[in-house]
Amino acid sequence: MSENKNPAIEKVENVIDEKAQERAHKKAMRNQEKNQRERLKNQRKIELARIRENEIARKNQAKSEARKERDKRKAERLISAQRVRENREERKRLKIQNRQKNKEHGRNHSGWLAAVITLGVSTLALATALGFTLFTPSEPDKDLEASYTRAFYDAVEQVDNIDLNLSKVLASSDSGAKQLYLLDLAVNSELAEADLQELPLKDENKFYTTKLINQIGDYAKYLNKKLVNGEDFSAEDVQNLKTLYEGNLKLKESLSKMSQKMTNGFSFSKMNDENSEKSIIEDFNSLQNLSVEYPELIYDGPFSDGQNTLTVKGLSGEEINSIDAERIFKYIFADRNLQEVSVSENSNSRFNCFNAVGKTEKGEIYAEISKKGGKLIMFDYAGSCEEVNYQTQDAIDSATEFLLGLGLRSLSPVWVNLNANVYTINFASEIDGVIIYPDMVKVRVCAETNQVIGLEASSYYANHTQRELSLPAISKQTAAAKVNPEMQIESVRLCVCPVGLNLEKLCYEISGEVLGNTYYVYIDAVTGRQVEMFKVIESTEGTLLM
Predict the structure, then answer these.
(1) Is 133 in the same domain as 220?
(2) Contacts of 318 (CB under 8 A, 6+ apart)
(3) Mean pLDDT value of segment 500-510
(4) pTM score > 0.70 for this model?
(5) What is the pLDDT of residues 93-141, one digit of tens each?
(6) 160 pLDDT band (50/70/90 cuts)?
(7) Same structural domain for residues 172 and 248?
(8) Which has the minimum average pLDDT: 15-24, 277-286, 380-389?
(9) How far apart are the first and last CA of the chain?
(10) Structural domain span for residue 363
């Protein structure tokens, strides 16, 4: 006979059983949910793997299909560049030949006076826009006229190419395709600018044209760098591209109208004559509206509008007047036997300068002297150098002595180039063995007389300031390991590099050879990432960094 349970105890046991069953049920539900999540997770992994495989296959297929097209485009770009170089050399030859003809007939042409000496090949268009006339022969030579005509229509062709590639960039959503179009735009810009520079126009007549073209090329490089770094275009980037596209479209239309005006009797060589047809020059001048109708572009590049609004750091002292400017000019060039000096104000100068022109027996000296502090920002001497009588070290010594006379000390020569019997020497500030590239001064020395015939110090006076340099976070060895392992490294040194509009980075400058070519690679001394790379190019302009 079973023992009767206490009802209260039985009730408690039932409650315990119910809770146990409830816990077991919840545990089973949790296990079921967990298993379901695992299944979904595995399914997602499988799906993502399949998507990745499809994407890789698509990219590989696209690469395979595009390789021939890229090779073809690359070959076309190289052919175009070679054609421009050949045309440029032919035009130079014809100019020299024509000058010689004039010389033999007793005519005296002063040539052309460069407004500035630039820091880079591609910056010539903007830097020289100060209103001086290119050499124009008095008796048009048929071959020379043909070279001018060829240059104009080559420029028209490149502007058409710019229009095409800008439209493709705006229409494309593929990053790789956009990089190709942007690369083409950069090439189109350089070729168009080179052709326009060959035309016998006054620099102010083509200033706005070349500014737009250079901005397009420079902005293309800036955007391409963003894509390479894994970034995408911002809404502002797209809008800037649209405004540049509209500006180039107007340029394209204007050039087309100009070409229609060029009848059989038209002559480029006579455009600057007093009684010549001025309609083409007026058409070029009207292109200044291009720079008014599109907004300023602020980006990391030498043709950014923001460059004109940057703070000038390296000028100090009291304001001078025109009398002071003349006195300073005569003091600096006291050994040049000045016969006459005139001074005027330069309202277009970023440094707020006086323009000074001094006449000598051998030509004119043109200079810009800052109102603040009375510093020589630039000068150019319109003489000629016929032969090489002095060596590189002689030129460096002469340039160094000239800089010391201007009060510019602690500068070291960092690059020397000999072209057309003229040494061009780049100096930069040096602090405890660290080269400060933003503080750059370019000096030109005649190899025949060893006399300084030009100076460009705008970069120095724009950027020179007291700096406290930080210590590098990585060693020379670590930085050197970042470059191509095949590079035969020749030197590694610390330097400060300009980055964009107002940034500077401490970098390791690593120079060396790869496959017989010399390169300069700049590695961020903090992050170890490559900041810039230049290749040494032997050209008709001498040894250049590109």
Answers:
(1) yes
(2) 372, 373
(3) 85
(4) no
(5) 554 454 444 433 333 332 222 222 223 333 332 233 333 333 334 444 5
(6) very high
(7) yes
(8) 277-286
(9) 108
(10) 322-463
Give residue 80's pLDDT band: very low, low, confident or very high (50, 70, 90): low
Query: Running DSSP on this structure, what letter comes out for residue 247?
Result: H
CA distance 68 to 8: 90
Per-residue pLDDT at 199: 78
Amino acid at 92: K
CB 523 within 8 A of CB 531: yes
Element (DSSP H or E) covering residue 52: helix 7-104
**Where would I find the H helices in 307-457?**
322-332, 392-405
425 closest CA partner among 442, 450, 411 = 442
**Domain end call among 397, 428, 463:** 463
Q: Helices (H) and strands (E) in the chain — how many of each?
A: 12, 13
Residue 375: which pLDDT band, with cuts at 50, 70 and 90?
very high
Radius of gyration of the chain (CA): 33
231-240 contact pairs (CB < 8 A, 24+): 232/175, 238/170, 240/295, 240/297, 240/299
Residues 374 and 294 in one domain: no
Map residue 506 onto helix, strand or coil. strand
Of the candidates 463, 491, 508, which is a domain's last residue? 463
Total count of domains within the chain: 3
451: confidence class by pLDDT, cuts 50, 70, 90: very high
Q: Which two tokens stand for residue 396?
A: 């460096």
Judged on CB neighbours under 10 Å (0-12, 13-18, 19+), 366 is buried
Find out whether 437 and 495 touch, Cβ atoms under 8 Å. yes
Contact 268, 152 (CB under 8 A): yes
Whether 242 and 336 map to the same domain: the answer is no
Distance CA 102, CA 495 (A): 49
What is the band of 371 on the pLDDT scale with cuts at 50, 70, 90? very high
Q: Are residues 338 and 438 in the same domain?
A: yes
